[in-house]
Amino acid sequence: MQSSLSSHTFSDVRVLVIGDVMLDRYWFGDVERISPEAPVPVINVAYSEERPGGAANVAANIAALGAECTLLSVVGQDDAGNALSAVLDQPRITAVLHVDDQSQTTVKLRVISKNQQLLRADFETPPAHEVLRLCLGEFRQRLPDADVVLISDYGKGGLLHIKEMIEAAVAVDKPVIVDPKGSEYSRYANASIITPNLREFESVVGASADEAELNRKATALINELALGSLLITKSEHGMTLYFGDGSNINYGAAGRDVYDVSGAGDTVISACALSLAAGLSHQHMLQFANAAAGIVVGKLGTAVAAIDEVVSEFEVNQ
Prior knowledge:
Elements: E1 14-19, E2 21-34, E3 41-54, H1 55-64, E4 68-76, H2 79-87, E5 93-100, E6 107-113, E7 116-123, H3 129-142, E8 148-152, H4 162-171, E9 176-179, E10 193-194, H5 198-205, H6 211-225, E11 229-233, E12 239-242, E13 248-251, H7 264-278, H8 282-296, H9 307-316
Parallel strand pairs: 1-4, 1-8, 2-6, 4-5, 8-9, 9-10, 10-11
Antiparallel strand pairs: 2-3, 6-7, 11-12, 12-13
């Protein structure tokens, strides 16, 4: 993997991303006093930043890793939707954002002082069914040009037609990788890979006493849903790829300081999608995803791992 990975490894890969987009807003400032109105800190906001979040952050990660990405989603007819369109106006991203004037763009507002998050406020309403049907039609139209389909489910209501999307992709032999949300995993049936973290997985199948039980539950879910495989991320314990025959591949996390885990799952699924499309081995896929995620958790807030950073990471660790 180290010798074959370069800044051009994924330059010919085309990814179709569909899912819940959001705008990540950050207010940065200093806290020097407590409010006289309530026992809460008062922040003097010095500056703000706006970054792509959710499926939009997935698209940004794919572009940063050197591939071409088409992003399909829904935004509101509001300032946040305009801001999200602006931050997605970057090379290698084609953002097709259908506007729903009955809902508002999902926004996550984080208030930060001295690199510590003081507060997060969320603003969201689910999109209308009519707009989601337009997204399904757009998905079918753009599917033939994609090498891989990535579905980013944040549970915001933008994936009403996810079963039809997976069925359409499977029918034309396009690999599908899903970042799942919630407890209804049957909607992800027939996907090539789903990528829950350990907490998400155990919320669906129950806690496991040991690795053997975890492996049995992962194998059972793969066979029940006719999945190609199941990737469970385990924070500082790395990640494990499970298969329907009961085998698995484990890859330990690189030892490094964790600054912020926001969006690390977006980076992992982006790296896995590119690995699938490029025909990398399972072992190399895990190595690549682990390296990219390790870079992202060393940055503040929602962030991306650029392909040159990942290449440098491999060179340092050769």
